[in-house]
Write a structure and sequence with these properties.
The protein is built from 1 helix and no strands. It has 43 residues and is an all-alpha fold. The radius of gyration is 16 Å and the shape is elongated.
Length: 43
């Protein structure tokens, strides 16, 4: 079970690096990812 969690942590770390790279590549185009874009507008 310990091996599973070590591998899951590595996958999570690599996913974070991958998402940071995507964020950097789209940042100059003004398409930076954020959760603010998912907010609902108030009526």
């Amino acid at each position: 079970m310990q091996h599973y969690f070590l591998i899951a942590k590595q996958v999570g770390d690599l996913t974070g690096v991958f998402l940071a790279h995507l964020d950097d590549s789209f940042a100059p185009k003004g398409r930076r990812f954020s959760l603010a874009g998912f907010r609902r507008s108030t009526r």
